Amino acid sequence: MSESSGPDHPGAAAPTGREAAGSDLIPGMRVDADQTELLLPGAVVAEVIAWVTPLAYPQEVPEWLLGAFDWRAMRLPLVAVQCLAEGVAAPEPGPASRIVVVKGLKHHRDLPFYGIAAEDIPQLVAIRPGNVRDPEDDEPRAQDLPGRPVMVGGAPGLIPDLTAVEDRLMAVLPAAGETPMDGEAD
């Protein structure tokens, strides 16, 4: 096994089943959200789907709420997490853009799932205590976003505070003219 693909490398495929049992690793996903690398626990990711153009909400919404998309007979909100920082514009989707469908944690009844925009195909990672650390004072940090800035394999990243993202969604969705579950999926 090469050094860059070994199980201790942050970009290594996340083990499953017996390989993960009894170890101190957490299967995760590295999501490229424009200039921010998000690090998500694998347990919160329901699915990664191809990019679809989001449907507009009937009322004005913040720039970080890109719209809604249909998934498994549900209409879900789509968030650009990197835009939760003030003054950050949503990037244009490219050919490799994806939507990471995330399980709702705090408001599961009203928001069972939502989407996070990804600029590229997310990568499975094995999260171990040795390959994720706090940034030093002189190292670059992820933008001012809700979550914990970390260094992942030497690059700045963010473990997003998904409950804070959900709180922001729940504060905006009723005023947007529909809730995530309104309407029939097309």
UniProtKB/TrEMBL annotation:
Region of interest: Disordered: 1-24, 130-150
Top-level taxon of origin: Bacteria
SUPFAM superfamilies referenced in this protein's UniProt entry, alphabetically: CheW-like
Segments forming domain CheW-like: 29-139
GO biological process: chemotaxis; signal transduction
Pfam families from the UniProt entry: CheW (PF01584)
InterPro entries: CheW-like_dom_sf, CheW-lke_dom
Protein name per its UniProtKB record: Chemosensory pili system protein ChpC
Origin organism lineage: Bacteria, Pseudomonadati, Pseudomonadota, Gammaproteobacteria, Chromatiales
